[in-house]
Design goal:
Structural class: mainly alpha
Largest sheet: none
Shape: globular
Helix content: 55-70%
């Protein structure tokens, strides 16, 4: 593979190594303390650390790079703190109830998180490794606008669900109000949208093989829609409310992801 002469490819190597190292240390600590509570926090912190360090390692510090890195940091802080507070409040993460009892199985989840972090962050890592800059243009602002729409969707959806679950009267019920009335997974729609936006901006300075980083939003969408997101929540939902006609009607009339489309 031929690397562009304006990109320091060592940024990618160092990011991948550090990413994997952090997740494996996290796994060792999680096994030692038999807990899953800091899994998401470790992932979010890794995103933030790699975004920041790649900016320093690349050395360009161009406006596009600094704005992109800042957006990743904002996302990582918001989502990481939200997920960590949620798991502390609920006392557990149902995704790992069985996995944490088996160290080898649990290692798969931590390793998958390392892969998730690197692939998702790849457009920003490539951007920050660039030594030449271009003037900001429409593509940059389009990408950042999509990021803004995405993080707003995600934050509002998360807030609405938190408020709903905090009300004792809603104990044992499923949410179908606010954004959740037009999408079964509005937070996932926001997540996919914001990473698509960051790719679009970064792609403006890419060439050749570097566009393989389109895998970032595609990978996020695949994992959330086919692996760890929608399938798992649908399974849990059917276990809890599969005999509830109101829940079945909600699933029938409400888009899975994109309101009024699918």
């Amino acid at each position: 593979m031929v690397f562009a002469d304006d990109m320091d490819v060592s940024v990618l190597y160092k990011s991948a190594a550090l990413d994997l190292g952090i997740q494996w240390v996290g796994w060792a600590a999680a096994v030692a303390f038999s807990t899953e509570k800091f899994y998401d926090l470790a992932g979010s912190a890794t995103y933030a650390l790699l975004a920041y360090l790649s900016l320093q390692w690349g050395g360009g510090h161009f406006t596009r790079q600094k704005v992109q890195t800042t957006l990743v940091l904002i996302w990582a802080f918001r989502l990481g703190s939200y997920l960590f507070m949620r798991v502390l409040r609920e006392g557990k993460d149902v995704r790992f109830e069985e996995a944490k009892k088996n160290p080898a199985h649990f290692l798969v989840y931590w390793t998958l998180q390392a892969v998730w972090v690197f692939i998702t962050l790849l457009p920003t890592l490539i951007l920050n490794a660039k030594s030449r800059d271009r003037s900001l243009g429409f593509q940059d602002y389009l990408g950042w606008s999509l990021w803004a729409v995405g993080i707003l969707l995600e934050a509002v959806a998360d807030h609405q669900k938190s408020v709903f679950k905090a009300d004792p009267e809603n104990s044992g019920k499923f949410i179908q109000s606010g954004l959740w009335s037009i999408s079964q997974h509005p937070n996932y729609l926001g997540e996919i949208t914001l990473w698509l936006g960051l790719y679009i901006t970064a792609a403006g300075v890419m060439g050749g093989w570097e566009h393989i980083s389109i895998v970032s939003p595609v990978f996020v969408a695949f994992l959330l829609l086919k692996v760890s997101g929608v399938p798992l929540l649908d399974e849990l939902g059917m276990k809890r409310w599969g005999n509830n006609p109101a829940y079945l009607a909600y699933r029938e009339r409400t888009a899975v992801l994109v309101p009024f489309v699918w």
